[in-house]
Amino acid sequence: MNRAKESSINWVERRSPKGRFHVFRRNVTEAMGVRPDAGLAGGGHPFDLELIRVPPGAANFPFHSHGAQWELYIIRSGSAELRAGDTVTTVTAGDVFMSPPGEPHQIKNTGTEDLLYYVVADNPPADFAHYPDSNKWLVKPPRKCFTMQEADYYQGEE
Fold this sequence. Notes:
Elements: E1 12-15, E2 22-27, H1 28-31, E3 47-54, E4 65-66, E5 71-77, E6 79-84, E7 87-92, E8 96-99, E9 105-109, E10 115-122, E11 127-131, E12 136-140, E13 144-147
Antiparallel strand pairs: 1-2, 2-3, 3-10, 4-11, 5-8, 5-10, 6-7, 6-9, 11-12, 12-13
């Protein structure tokens, strides 16, 4: 059995250049010795668990959807605006919600204190994310972003 003490896991900060997106993350699953994005086939867990802290006024990540990954959110403290699909709603401490594959989502801290939540994600061996606001794509692994250019199906094949 792998074990970790949440309070001893370091916060890892991730911030966009202008600060619109700003989070601090405690990756609980990695602290228990599991490689990121390993999935069951790679010796990983069937899910990932993170504790996320979002400062007031910031959003967690750009609006995005996953192709394969499910995410379960548990709001611990604070208040936020949840943008999911075509809906915008307020979430507060005690709210629990799920983001299925294909549904774009984003959380923005609208309160005056840090927003704190857990996210539990299943761990598919491969995934992609689409960012509707910027029309870019992320492929995981290798965790790289791209913009697409339409091509003929047989281009470069013969």
